[in-house]
Automatic annotation (TrEMBL), chain A:
Record-annotated Winged helix DNA-binding domain positions: 16-96
Organism: Cellulomonas aerilata
SUPFAM superfamilies referenced in this protein's UniProt entry, alphabetically: Winged helix' DNA-binding domain (SSF46785)
Protein name from the UniProt record: MarR family transcriptional regulator
Pfam families in alphabetical order: HTH_34
From TrEMBL, chain B:
Disordered, as annotated region: 1-21
Protein name per UniProt: Uncharacterized protein
Keyword Membrane: yes
Species name: Cellulomonas aerilata
Alphabetical UniProt keywords: Membrane, Transmembrane, Transmembrane helix
Length: 115, 219
């Protein structure tokens, strides 16, 4: 039986969970400009930057600086690893929220089996 | 005091908001997904609604002033101006809406959207070029009007069906197919009845699609 403590700590905070939810809601290959992401989250630029750096360090998001025309623009997208981590997080959440009926005696499959 | 406050992972997130429990996380994900959808999805209710209204009223006006015993006393030119105005208004609503919803989204889907947008634009430039080509070839006003009544819906139907294939949208596919069937029927009805067919079945079909989309979103 997974415990809440097993949830990925990089994602398991309000701010970063909302960032990952937003970025993974777009199809793979899509990225958001920093201001649009900010408006979808109602976040301050400083707060968003801090959390993005944490997610970038974990390899879950890619932040690219480029240009739209001549205007400098920062783009943010979920990486493949980030999408997988988010999927795992959601799956774990679902497992935590559905109490296994009548399986108390069985060994929990999700624990101790990974290398 | 939370009994899990001393678990090691708590230490790596001192930067944050109140701690999450699984139910809170699930609720947060659902709320944020709904918000992203509401703010980035192109809304079929609005687009089918404005185009349906433009066709219903525009083709309706053209029909009402046509024939031997017109239902309205307007000049055909006035009806034409009304229709053109409605189409321009629908185009403006569409452009503004799509631009707002997709603002700041780049990458694969914006490339798809841009290519699809160019297909509409060039397609309609070609339709108007056709009107000019027919006139130059000696076609009378009646022939040009038949072409301009049938070719635009033909293009709209084909583009809806193609768009449905891109975004795997069954409702849009059904609407595109319906518009093509209506166009085929209208071709055999002849003038001025085809204008009534395009108004009621074409515009009406789009309005029905807008209603269907509203129902789908509520469930």
């Amino acid at each position: 039986m997974p415990a809440p403590g097993d949830l990925d700590p990089v994602i398991h905070t309000q701010a970063r969970l909302r960032i990952m939810t937003t970025l993974t809601a777009l199809p793979p290959g899509d990225r958001l400009t920093f201001p649009r992401l900010q408006s979808l989250l109602d976040a301050t630029a400083g707060n968003l930057s801090t959390h993005l750096r944490r997610l970038e360090d974990a390899g879950y998001v890619a932040v690219t600086k480029g240009h739209i025309g001549r205007v400098p623009a920062t783009h943010v997208e979920a990486t493949r690893a980030g999408r997988r981590a988010f999927e795992d997080y959601v799956a774990q959440l679902a497992a935590l929220l559905t109490p296994p009926a009548g399986t108390r005696g069985e060994p929990a499959p999700s624990k101790g089996t990974s290398a | 005091m939370r009994d899990d406050a001393d678990r090691p992972r708590a230490a790596v997130m001192p930067d944050d908001d109140p701690p999450l429990d699984p139910a809170g996380s699930a609720a947060l994900i659902a709320a944020q997904r709904a918000r992203v959808a509401a703010e980035t999805d192109v809304d079929g209710r609005l687009l089918f609604g404005v185009w349906g209204a433009a066709w219903l009223l525009g083709f309706g006006a053209l029909w009402a002033v046509a024939g031997d015993r017109p239902a309205l006393g307007w000049s055909p030119a006035a009806a034409g101006v009304l229709f053109a105005g409605l189409l321009v208004a629908a185009m403006v609503v569409t452009s503004v809406h799509v631009a707002r919803r997709t603002s700041g989204v780049h990458g694969t889907s914006s490339l798809q959207g841009a290519m699809y947008g160019w297909a509409w634009f060039l397609g309609f430039v070609a339709v108007f070029a056709l009107a000019s080509g027919l006139t130059r070839a000696g076609a009378g006003a009646g022939v040009v009007q038949v072409a301009m009544t049938l070719v635009p819906p033909l293009l709209v139907g084909v583009l809806y069906m193609a768009g449905a294939a891109i975004w795997r949208d069954r409702a849009q596919f059904a609407l595109g197919a319906w518009i093509l069937v209506v166009t085929i029927v209208a071709s055999f009805v002849g003038t001025p009845g085809m204008l009534a067919v395009m108004s009621l079945a074409g515009g009406g079909g789009m309005l029905a699609a807008a209603v269907a989309e509203a129902v789908r979103r509520r469930s």
